[in-house]
Specification:
single chain; 584 residues; mainly alpha; Methane Monooxygenase Hydroxylase, Chain G, domain 1; 2 domains; 78% helix; elongated
Length: 584
């Protein structure tokens, strides 16, 4: 074995890991978020959570990615720590699928149909089909499936390179003597754990073991402890990701590590004792890639079956290892970058945060209208706090969304990202107008003055119209209902009409000496904030509609909306004008 064999080995490993990433990205896109819906509800039952964890790991082809995602979800408060235990155990089962596919490399037959099952034979076919689907497919689903096939072909090519690089080992006496160290199960476990920890992928580590077995000389007695150690080594990624997170999030990594250590001890001790007592003959037999896959699956299924009923005890152990401190877990992390490992969940979390932002902006403006009528310092402080939070949410969402756009996401998720990016500034600006209206309330309170009864009545009607547009805007953003969204623009035009009427009536009062210039300035400022708030609602509704179409041309939409939906627009406009009417 020369330097070129070593280069081929590491090159094959690089292709393997890259292919796995390409395949997982394609699988995640093609799943369209189906595995992540109702996440909180699914994980409340430990057995369903276990099945979910297995399915999620199969979809993203990485138990490490799922574990890192769970750390992020707990750290951001989306999941309770205890809900992750079943998912963690299930992820250990899901990750065994790759080994089963790679085990086909050991097929040796003259029958053409059996030979086609060998990865190096069918991988080029998959690559060809994948390239055709990616280049010629019109629907995103087909392109995503094409990426899955291409990633799989690259993965198999990497596996073939690793296998070929290890062929010369079978003729090296030094290799045979090195393998004798693996006959000690403790050393084998440590080697499996350390190597997996270095490359941070149990799937890749098992693949290398399978490639090594093709060279010959690897026995059952060596492979079984190595497989157990590989499960411990895969915990390194979670341990690294738990640095700098909340104590509850750290507990996820502790449970993952303790589960795999206990599983290894439960299986390794009987295996070693049984071999000492019965001197099992099979431990000296050479193992095949297929049997590695079988043992890998049996080990993970068995440890999950044995330890899943003790999930509560594992939770208590993690609570004992990582003791809570008063107030530490109360620290809020709005968006955790660890959830970016599974983009669909990251998009779902981002959308939930944006909905919170939407409701916060609406509530802030509602409160500001009350402050204009009945000002209090406590109320003003609350609105200032709400506006500060809106600023924080906008900054964090904007940064998080830009990172999400650099990751491959499905068309559906891409539309949701676009909708978020096109609306968060509007939500933040509504909060600014809430502060402006509150300041006018403060000014009237401090000067012990108020608007005339006529002006107050006009403001009441316009404020009710603005409350209505805020309500339907929040509903359309939350649900994506396009019919509700279409009703926003007619109401915005009615509000424009009401404000023009109120300004005209104010000028008449000013001319008749029923109003002062100072109150006139204050009234104009209030009307401006009301108008601009309605305009932001219009922007949000347009974004909801345009996100559904995949285009964002607000001016073009507003130019054509009256023509394309002429009857609907006129009917809603007249309905709102009759409901919110200022006489005169």
């Amino acid at each position: 074995m020369d330097i070129f064999s070593i280069i081929t080995l590491f090159g094959g490993l690089a292709f393997f890991i890259y292919g796995m990433n390409v395949m997982s990205a394609g699988l995640e896109k093609s799943s369209n978020g189906s595995l992540t819906k109702n996440l909180n509800k699914i994980t409340k039952n430990r057995y369903i959570a276990m099945l979910f964890g297995a399915g999620m790991t199969i979809a993203v082809q990485s138990s490490s990615a799922v574990t890192v995602m769970l750390v992020g979800l707990v750290n951001s408060g989306l999941l309770e720590f205890g809900q992750t235990i079943g998912v963690l155990m299930g992820s250990n089962i899901g990750t065994t699928l790759t080994a089963w596919i790679l085990s086909l490399a050991g097929i040796d037959s003259d029958v053409i149909w059996l030979n086609l099952l060998k990865p190096k034979n069918f991988a080029p076919i998959f690559a060809l089909i994948g390239v055709v689907m990616t280049m010629m497919g019109k629907k995103e689903k087909w392109k995503s499936l094409g990426s899955v096939l291409i990633g799989f072909a690259i993965l198999m090519f990497g596996m073939t390179l690793m296998s070929d690089s290890m062929e010369p080992l079978s003729e090296m006496p030094e290799f045979a003597s090195m393998l004798t160290a693996f006959s000690n199960p403790i050393i084998a476990v440590i080697i499996g754990a350390v190597f997996t920890g270095i490359i941070q992928s149990s799937a890749a580590s098992v693949a290398i073991l399978q490639a090594l077995s093709l060279a010959g000389g690897v026995t059952y007695g060596m492979a079984i402890p190595i497989i157990m150690g590989q499960n411990i080594g895969t915990c390194v990624t979670a341990l690294i990701s738990s640095i700098g997170v909340s104590r509850n999030a750290k507990k996820v990594a502790v449970v993952h590590l303790s589960f795999n250590i206990f599983g290894t001890l439960i299986c390794l001790i009987p295996f070693c004792l049984g071999d000492m007592i019965f001197n099992w003959e099979f431990t000296s037999w050479e193992i095949s890639p297929l049997m590695i896959a079988i043992i890998h699956s049996i080990f993970n299924v068995l440890t999950t079956a044995l330890l899943l009923p003790f999930a509560k005890q594992l939770e208590k152990l993690a609570n004992w290892v990582i003791k809570d401190k008063d107030g530490e877990n109360a620290k809020e992390v709005i968006l955790d970058e660890r959830t970016l490992s599974v983009p669909t969940i990251a998009v779902n979390k981002s959308f939930d945060v944006t909905v919170d932002m939407c409701m916060l902006a609406k509530d802030a403006f509602f409160k500001s209208i009350e402050q204009m009528r009945h000002f209090t310092e406590e109320g003003a402080a609350e609105i200032d706090e709400m506006e500060t939070r809106l600023d924080t949410l906008e900054d964090q969402l904007g940064t998080y969304m830009m990172k999400l756009t650099k990751i491959g996401v499905s068309d559906a998720d891409s539309k949701r990202i676009a909708k978020i990016l096109h609306t968060i500034d509007d939500f933040e600006r509504i909060g600014d107008h809430a502060v402006s209206v509150t300041e006018i309330g403060r000014e009237l309170h401090d000067k012990k003055t108020s608007f005339s009864s006529e002006a107050n009545e006009e403001l009441r009607i316009i404020s009710e119209a603005v409350k209505e547009i805020l309500n339907i805007t929040a509903e359309t953003f939350r649900t994506g209902d396009l019919e509700i969204a279409a009703a926003v623009e007619p109401l915005d035009k009615v509000i424009d009409t009401l404000i023009l009427t109120a300004k005209r009536k104010h000028i008449i009062r000013l001319q008749n000496g029923k109003c002062t210039k100072e109150l006139g300035f204050a009234l104009n400022d209030v009307l401006t904030s009301l108008k601009r708030t309605a305009d932001h609602c219009s922007n949000i509704a347009v974004a909801v509609i345009e996100a559904n179409h995949g285009t964002f041309d607000t001016h073009e939409y507003l130019h054509t909306v009256k023509i394309q939906n002429k009857e609907f627009f006129a009917a809603k406009y007249n309905e709102y004008l009759e409901r919110f009417n200022i006489a005169g």
